[in-house]
Amino acid sequence: MVEKTFSQRKVGCHLLETDKARPYKPGKKPELGPVWDKDLCVRCALCYVYCPDAAISRQDDGFFDADMNLCKGCGICHRECWFGAISMQEVD
Ligand code: SF4
Ligand code: SF4
After folding, report:
1. What is the chain's mean pLDDT, rounded?
2. 74: Cβ below 6 Å to ligand 1?
3. In this predicted structure, what is the pLDDT of residue 53?
4. What is the CATH number of domain 8-90?
5. What's the Cα-to-Cα distance from 20 to each of 2, 11, 40, 71, rounded to whole Å?
6. What is the whole-number distance in angstroms between the Cα of residue 56 and the centre of ligand 2?
7. pTM given for the model
8. Which residue's CA is the closest to the ligand 1 atom numbered 6?
9. Ligand 1 site-directed mutation target among 46, 58, 71, most atoms within 8 Å of CB
10. Whole-angstrom Cα distance, residue 33 to residue 1?
């Protein structure tokens, strides 16, 4: 296997408080998912770093979005965003 460089690695999968993810079952379709307000987002990437499932990625415009096939709806990104740029809303 070829070792990835630092810039090729995904930063996600870091949890400072692992008990926060425990109530949620991986693989279950989430009832709530993150929605970004670009007017409030300062593109600090904290949400990207904190997502335990590496569901969040940087988009071409520099803002962030979640892959709902990976997101489990835990809401950590919403709680860790200092700027209130992420709200948890019902998933269709
Ligand atoms: S943590 Fe909040 S302000 Fe920072 S990039 Fe994510 S949504 Fe934007
Ligand atoms: S709610 Fe946010 S932190 Fe939790 S899995 Fe989805 S994108 Fe990641």
Report:
1. 82
2. no
3. 80
4. 3.30.70.20
5. 33, 19, 25, 14
6. 7
7. 0.77
8. 47
9. 46
10. 34
